[in-house]
Specification:
The chain is mostly beta strands. The protein is built from one helix and eight strands, in the order αββββββββ. The strands form three sheets. A three-stranded antiparallel β-sheet has the order 6-3-8, with no helix packed on it. A three-stranded antiparallel β-sheet has the order 4-5-7, with no helix packed on it. A two-stranded antiparallel ribbon has the order 1-2.
Length: about 150
């Protein structure tokens, strides 16, 4: 009986030693990971809510222009016709044609009318609108659509 107890104790000791030597991962080690994050470009262009067709010059303003390298923001405009004509009407149905102008050249549909680079707060380009033809006195209303796009160079 004593022999079997001693054998059992020896077998347990051998198993314990064997088990302890198999778990080499219990040793201390240091590993490193690189943490990455890609922050997207952010921008906010302020488009005038109302533009008077009296020839006053306007610029676009950006309250935020935080762009990644190799990117810029473009503004284009859509009018009633290719040459920058804007159809305007009164509440009583009178018709008028106004014209969109760029201070540095003529407008053509699809043209980029302003570009913002990183950090810019005001457009370099100016624009203005003039009344071309009217059907008489009255308050005329029309719409211009401005398209703003983030462009990768």
């Amino acid at each position: 009986m004593k022999k079997s107890i001693i054998c059992a104790l020896l077998a347990t000791a051998i198993c314990t030693v064997t088990n302890a030597s198999e778990f080499t991962s219990l040793e201390t080690s240091t590993q490193q990971s690189t943490v990455t994050y890609s922050a997207p470009s952010e921008y906010m262009i302020l488009i005038p809510e109302t533009i008077t067709a009296d020839g006053s010059r306007h610029k676009f303003v950006a309250s935020k222009m935080d762009l990644r390298d190799g990117e810029h923001v473009e503004i284009s405009a859509s009018m009633s016709d290719e040459d920058g004509g804007i159809q305007m009407f009164t509440n009583s149905g009178k018709w008028m044609l106004a014209k969109f102008h760029l201070a540095n050249g003529d407008y053509r549909r699809g043209n980029v009318i302003s570009v913002f680079e990183n950090g810019m707060t005001e457009s370099l380009e100016e624009f203005y609108i003039t009344a071309e033809q009217t059907e008489g006195a009255g308050d005329y209303y029309g719409t211009i659509s401005f398209d703003i796009s983030l462009v990768r160079d």
